[in-house]
Amino acid sequence: MRAESALVPLVVDRHAVAGAADLPVLVEELRRGYAEGHRAAARTPPRTTVAGTDPPAMFGVMPSVSSREGLFVTKLATLVPDRPAGEPAIHALSVVMSTRTGRPLAVLDGAALTDLRCAAVTALVTDLCTPDRPLHVGLVGSGVLARQQVRGMCAVRPLASVTVTSRRAGNAEAFARWAADLAGPECRVEVADGPADVVDGRDVIGTATGSVEPLIVRLPPGPVHVNCMGAHAADRREVASDLLREHLLLVEDRDLAVAEAGPAHRDAVDLGALLADPPADLASRTTVFSSTGDPWADLVTAAHVLRRVRPAVAVG
User: Fold this and answer.
1) Listed GO cellular component terms (predicted)?
2) How far is CA 233 from the centre of its chain?
């Protein structure tokens, strides 16, 4: 982490982002923000993407501005599938500027910020939609977003079991060892052969893949909650479209979800409306949370980190 001068903003690397995070506090900040209309009051347009051709790549810009926080935050992200060996698929930076002075305040590691936001949103939604007891969890995918889902769930519930499947058996085995360490000795962790094997007997099913075809095509009878954190577009999703229509569909923001993930989300309930008047029977219903990522939640997460990295920062 490097201190800022008059012209150079504070630079917060991934280690500083992780070290500054207080996940339970961030969950409550997001809960209040959605419930009290702060998200609705912010200006958060759909992301802008630009395709590169040589080599094939995607460049994204995800802005949000909040007068309440006094911040304008834009995440810049790149996706280069045919990248040099050793490079991650995605690079991201989050640029934070003051709405009061226009001054650049900070540049944060965007991937670390995304991880933290994903964990916090998973915790928030899981807390709303699951019974207050140890949970049996099934996961499709074993990458970074799958880990953040487990991290988020562990923040609000003990886990009784975690069953994971992944295209690469070695990745699933490594994930299982990591999850066992995080969840503790009372949690049974297993590796399954495929997506169909993580459905039955689960309280929560999580997806975190780049699949263009639905991986979850049926749900068990009785209440279950689904967290979809991976691929989303009008022509690709991890959960079959009929399941989105048949069950209570939740999103961060409905307009954003329709713009980015298609008309199947037109009847979704966004988190602001849900938290303003949560149904008493929510944990006894089957619910599907279809996340598109929310730049406003990135903004709240950035403000959370900056308050801890530099307490005198002019946010909030």
Assistant:
1) cytoplasm
2) 16
